[in-house]
Amino acid sequence: MVFRDRFVPYLLLAPQVVVTIVFFLWPAGQAIYQSVLREDAFGLSRRFVWFENFDRLFADPAFWHSLGISILFAAAVATLALGASLMLANAANHVIRGRSWYRILLIWPYAIAPAIAGILWLFLFAPVVGIVPYILHQHFGWDWNHRLDRTEAMALVILAATWKLISYNFIFFLAGLQAIPRSLLEAAAIDGAGPARQFWAIIMPLLSPTTFFLLVVNGIYAFFDTFGIIHAVTAGGPGSPGATSILVYKVYRDAFLTLDLGASAAQSVVLMAIVVVLTVIQFRSVEKRVHYA
Question: TM spans, by residue (predicted)?
Fold first, then answer.
């Protein structure tokens, strides 16, 4: 499209540029600036300390613990969410009767706020009144208590975060499956290819751009957008250091509970750098196996 007035393209881009500056670039710049300052708890005085906050951060075992469980958490959530959503999308693509209702029911969880999703899973797995601990105890003799057991706490937040993410992935996978020409699958079936052969030889290569995009988005979601679930379900616990205190939650604890603003800002910068590095690695390594039509 050719615009007669040369200012029209800039005018159309202006809202997006303003949103990017206000909600992304300015907060990132403030985090970098705060990371080289030392402030008192009330924000009345500050001094420039160069990289002292980073030195204290890298010498803190709690930071390395939080970094380790963050990577474990992100890998588990992305793997489970991608696998489950692909299976559901494949099933929905073959449903004939009631197809629209089936898809709507699968998309609903995406509209639920992370904190509300965390509360729902907290009620399901509440050690005293939850239905799941009751079933586990009655049928398997398993006394579930994520408030005391570190492994169960991590498993619960992974389940809650995965459930919240499945609907988002489902929409993209279903759209990708519907874009695959039926003639390709029918030709493969005539040549004797079974469902498994069709899936790995035709469906997965054609879905690779969608899978690659979702892999990047899922990783960023697990690192940044799961604060509400962690806060509602376990509040970073149990134990010390917290079994579910991933980096984004540790940033909150250091800033608003312990009032260590410099360390919190330094962790924000490290978290931002980790996500950027992981995204670059994904683009350089995984994209080579992506087949664009």
Answer: 7-26, 62-89, 110-136, 156-177, 198-224, 261-281
CATH number assigned to the domain comprising residue 142: 1.10.3720.10
Q: Among 14-23, 231-240, 277-286, which range has the highest average pLDDT?
A: 14-23
CA–CA distance, 205 with 263 (Å, rounded to integer): 44
Domain that holds residue 268: 60-285
- Is 195 part of a structural domain of the chain? yes
pLDDT band for 280, please (50, 70, 90 cuts): confident
For residue 47, is it within any domain? no
Query: 148: helix, coil or strand?
Result: coil
Q: From start to end of the chain, where are the E strands?
A: 37-39, 46-48
User: Which pTM does this prediction carry?
Assistant: 0.84
What distance lies between CA 20 and its chain's CA centroid?
21
* E-strand stretches of 211-289: none
Whether 206 maps to a domain, the answer reads yes
- The Cα–Cα gap between 116 and 232 comes to 8
In the chain, how many domains are there?
Answer: 1
| Confidence check: pLDDT of 156 > 90 | yes
Q: Token pair for residue 41?
A: 């708890």
Taking each helix axis from N to C end, the angle separating 204-224 and 61-94, rounded to the nearest 10 degrees, works out to 140
